[in-house]
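Table S2 (continued). Query chain:
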Amino acid sequence: MRFIHSIPFLIAALLAAGDASAQHQSQPTEESRKLPPGSAAERKARMSSRANAVSYTKKFDLSGLPHYVPEEKPTGKLRVYGNNYVGDAPLGRWWKEAFEKFQPGIQVEYYLPSAAIAIPGLYFGLADVAINHEPSFYDSLGHLRLKGYEPVGFSAFTGSYNFVIIVNKDNPLAKIALQQLDGIFGAARDGGWVGTTWHPEFSRGSEKDIRKWGQLGLTSEWADKHIDVYGYSLRYATAIEFSNKVLQSSDKWNGDLHAYGNYRRPDGTTYLEADQIVDQVRKDRAAIGYVRFHQNLPKEIKVLALARTSAGPYVEYSLDTAQDRSYPLWGDQSLWVSVKPGTRMDAKTREFIRFVLSREAQELVQRDGKYLPLTAEAAGEELKKLDQFTGAIQ
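Corresponding output:
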């Protein structure tokens, strides 16, 4: 793992990797105002400039990734549902064109209005592949109820819009471990989830709660200062993802959490939840918050280095540490499929996943310049997982 000491470099990397002009591009446009607020069509119109923009120009070394060489030549339609960002950006079109050149017998059909329909598309038999982040509890439960097993995912690319932990610039803290974040943002719990399976061994008591800055080693005026906690509304998938990564997928949060959601101001602009969190942390010296990567972080904000455990190493957030996944709170999007354990995956689906994990497809991710391409190690892990589904069809 890599530790980057230069804070100016960190901020520059955040700006380069991130959601370019996110605040501006999330606001209504002349075209979007003509459409039903919150609809897929309105969102697409509002985000069109962002979908076609490049957020980073760095070129990663992808030479270790395998070239795509078809193992089978199946025919028919391949239905891909889910993530609107892939469809709105050039990436979806580029993947389709490149894959169909390798596999002229397969016609890729996209239906990508929203990640919200990804997993339902699978369990209702409408999709062969779903592009989405980690399924929600009810996504997985619906699939289990209708199919008899949970969906299987294969990481397709790494996010450049990951969680960062922020404090006020006056706070002397510079780094924090995930277990400490659990102590700050979480509460005593009786267990946690992995998919739809409850694990009581994930329980912890209130003695592990962290409510004062002195519990993190701060002294003097900070020792008895109460930690003010800020984050997203718990109804958001963002909060659920943070719980999955930090709180052992539990629903037990710090009762003093200040949680925010987007809302429309009288002038018609949207006050983003992340902006609300940042604005609170910049004003509150005793604050800590988690946000998605956020452009133009004000000078009153400091981003903490993270470690998986208190033993370290502590890793600063940057384009490189997100892409190589040494930063502990990296995120991704995956290709989800319905395949019964111990059976052979449909050949069209398997070939498409193999293509996405190839150098050819990951070079297109990099060219698109929003998501980050997989490393050779990450792609190799997914290919090993895929090998489990090459047996005889039952």
